[in-house]
């Protein structure tokens, strides 16, 4: 399948820059290349870069670590485990520690229910195991 081009407008560029910084260049580029293979995934990535990362994550009102804390809390409360894993990685890249993640999950669990905290801890443990795997 051939690559589909993105509309690299100013919001796309701003969002792409933020996302690449938070994801890391290798992981981000791989996801971009995969998204460009299908119209649906390309258009979703376009939308996310422009609106989510370009217009919101790029705003000056909150530090990225604070935005990560909010996002991880909301995803935990909503039980969005797959997306949570991605934001755990980005949260760590934005300066959150594993100890702070644990506290976020405990705190959210009180207000959103223990099962949400359990699922979030399981997701975090999967991410940590992946990150701790020896590179070789």
Write up this protein:
By secondary structure, this protein is mainly alpha-helical. It is built from seven helices and no strands. The longest helix is centred in the middle third of the chain and has 19 residues. It is globular and about 45 Å long. The protein starts with 9 loop residues before the first helix and ends with a helix. 26% of the residues are buried. The model has no long low-confidence stretch (mean pLDDT 94).
N-to-C CA distance: 31 Å
Specify the helix fraction band. over 70%
Question: Largest sheet, if any?
Answer: none
Strands, total number:
0
Give the topology string: H per helix, E per strand.
Answer: HHHHHHH
Oligomeric composition of the shown chains: single chain
- Beta fraction of the residues? under 5%
- How many helix segments? 7
| Average pLDDT level | 94
* SS-derived structural category: mainly alpha
Radius of gyration: 16 Å
Low-confidence stretches: none
């Amino acid at each position: 399948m051939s690559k589909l081009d993105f509309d690299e407008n100013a919001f796309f560029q701003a969002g792409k820059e933020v996302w690449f910084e938070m994801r890391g260049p290798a992981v981000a580029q791989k996801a971009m290349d995969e998204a460009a293979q299908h119209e649906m995934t390309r258009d979703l990535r376009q939308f996310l870069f422009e609106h989510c990362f370009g217009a919101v994550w790029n705003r000056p009102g909150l530090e990225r670590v604070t935005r990560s804390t909010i996002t991880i809390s909301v995803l935990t409360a909503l039980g969005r485990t797959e997306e949570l894993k991605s934001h755990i990685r980005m949260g760590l890249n934005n300066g959150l520690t594993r100890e702070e993640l644990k506290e976020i999950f405990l705190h959210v669990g009180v207000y959103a229910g223990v099962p949400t905290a359990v699922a979030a801890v399981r997701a975090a443990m999967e991410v940590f195991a992946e990150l701790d795997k020896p590179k070789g």
